[in-house]
Each structure stands twice: as C-alpha cells, then as structure tokens.
Amino acid sequence: MGVLENESTDEGNQAIINDIWLRRFGFLEDSNIFKSRLQLVYGSQKTVDRIRSLNLLAADQEDTVYHRYEWLTPVTALFHLRQAMLHMIQICYYGSEKPAVATSQIRTDRSKLSWVKECLGYKRVRPNNWDFHALETLVVDIFKTRLMALFGIEAKPHLVVSDTDDEDILFKEEKALHELLDGQNQSLVFNILDEIRDDVYGAQTDLCEDGELRNHILYLQQMEIYMLLGYAVKHGDIGLITDCFVRETVLFH
User: In angstroms, rounded to a whole number, what is the distance separating the alpha carbons of residues 57 and 41?
Assistant: First the structure.
C-alpha cells in the first residue's frame, strides 16, 4: 500500500520518512544505524529540496539523531535529469497539431515532432500528455532517421552501385548503403559519422534563415546530449555523465 501523504510539504515528507524507516523497515528511533550510516534517498529535484529543507528545520530543534535527519542524504536521480531534458525537447520541438495553410508553414512543420508523429502513427504522444516511454521512442526514432538520412547523403560518393538494369536506382543505392554499413570498412563509416557531426555542430544556426533546417540542426545537437546521457547512465560512465551535466546546464539556463 502506498503512503498517502502530501509530498509538497515538509510535514508530509517527514511523515513519509517515518512511515518507511520506522513502520515498514521496523527500525527503532534510537537504532545505531542512524548514528553510523548515511542513507541515500533518490528522487526528483523537488524531493531533494524537501529533504534538505527538513534537514535544516530539524537540525536545531530535535535532540535525537533520528529526528535531526542528519543520516538522510538526498540525491537527484539521473532518470529525472533525463526526464527533464526529454520534456524540454518536447516543449521546444513538438509544434502545433493544427494543419498549416501557407507553404512555408508546411515546410517548417516537417521538422516538428507533431508532423512526424502523425506520419508514423504515434498515438500515445500528445502535447499535454506526459508519457515518458512513448515520447522517448518517438524522439529517438526521429533522431536515428535524420542521422541515417544525413549518412546516406554523405556516404553517396563512397557507395558501390551495381550496373544491373533490372533494379531501380534508389533500390540499388539503398542496397549499397546496407553493404557499406555491414561491410569490413568500418573506419570509413566512422569517418563519415565524424563528418556529419562536424557539419551539424559547425553550423551557425543563428544565421540560418531556413526555419526547418535550423530546427533539424538544433534537434540533432540536443538529442545527441540526451542519447549520450542515457548511454552514460546505463554504463556508469562518470566522466561522460559530468560532460552531459555541463552541456545540459547551458540548455536549461
């Protein structure tokens, strides 16, 4: 059964802590575990702020170690950092679901999540409906699709296209692209990816007059940070996580 307390108040968080450690875990208030160990509590930034506030309020008011809550150390869970960035991407790139009339609007809408969502048939993603897993699936699929489109353009001079006349040219280029990706020359693949990354990060988006192109570039830049953070968290790469923190600080500012 859940803890039916108001998490938005200090009193509510205090009641939740007491319920978990005293009633559910069965510890006594004078237990040595509160004197000898720090207990890590993971949650959102709001949870961290509430527990820190509780630490400050109880520091000079309570006599026992337990009720001073010095043994409780709140830590922002990395999942919530990913969640915050995903929400930011949704706000910045979702766009309007209303049909555009002007030709320029239609072109710009193609760089929006709402336009791609309708084309691919994603039903669970809505501008005001927060479904983390559904939204993550959509933005990751779009990121991979745009990356593959750029890869196909950059790799075209390196493709070995067959001379058979019984196949469509687009089909032959697609086949040659798969052969390049699955082949032994992986150094060429990585070189092409490096060229794409240099082009994306070297673009001066503030001078770009094409709204659709600007959205595509900024989306790729920010989604790379999101993808890197997910990889770093999964593999416990502290250095990469720290690097993502620095980049996200600029985006959240």
Answer: 18
Residue 216 sits at φ, ψ, to 5 deg, of: -60, -45
pTM metric for this prediction: 0.70
3-state secondary structure of 249: helix
Is residue 220 a contact partner of residue 199, using CB atoms and an 8 Å limit?
Answer: no
Q: Hey, where are the domains in the chain?
A: 10-76, 81-252
* DSSP alpha helix (H) spans, the chain: 10-18, 33-36, 45-59, 65-68, 78-93, 103-109, 113-120, 132-155, 169-182, 186-202, 211-235, 238-252
Per-residue CA distances from 241 to 54, 55, 67, 84, 96 (Å): 28, 28, 34, 15, 33
**Residue 189 tokens, joined:** 């693949």
Query: Which residues in the chain come in under a pLDDT of 50?
Result: 100-108
**What confidence score (pLDDT) does residue 225 get?**
92
Residues 6+ apart with CB under 8 A from 35: 65, 71
| Residue tagged 């250095």 (tokens) | 239
Tell me, what's the pLDDT at 140? 92
What pLDDT score was predicted for residue 136? 92
Q: H-helix or E-strand containing 60?
A: none
Structure-derived torsion over alpha carbons of residues 13, 18, 21, 24, reported in degrees to the nearest 10: -110
Cα dihedral 210, 144, 195, 222 sign = positive
Q: What 3-state DSSP class applies to 208?
A: coil
| Rounded Cα distance, 122 and 10, in Å | 40
